[in-house]
Amino acid sequence: MSNVFILDACALIALLAGEPGAENVKKIIQDAVDGDITVKINQINLLEVYYKVCNVYNQNEANRTMKKLKEFPIEIIIGLKEDVFNEAGRIKSKYKIPLGDSIAVAECIIGKGILVTSDHNDLEKIEKRESLKINWFR
Hints:
This protein has seven helices and five strands. By secondary structure, the protein is α/β, with parallel strands linked by helices. Helix 1 runs parallel beside helix 3, helix 3 packs across helix 4 and helix 5 packs across helix 6.
């Protein structure tokens, strides 16, 4: 089993907002603090978190949130490597899912990680058809 977990934006949003499943995400973050696992998020998925906080609150709060998240043991993947770029394009084209989700899925497939998400509607079908492991936090 992989010890690399890739966060979908919804996982961080749930954690920050105290939504159902937040405790499961918190446990994953704690496991990273303890050094048991590695947690990553692509910059594009982090942008979704930033946008959501801006939309619900304001840009100042979004900036504070990003500063707070930098204290977490989460590696931010900057940009897209060519293999992730190609895989994300293939996944988006084949399954017609949002761009952010296709990037998170591609990061997991290429990096052999486990996706942390609650997006059952878009991702259950991909989990069954691709080499994708998912940790459903709710």
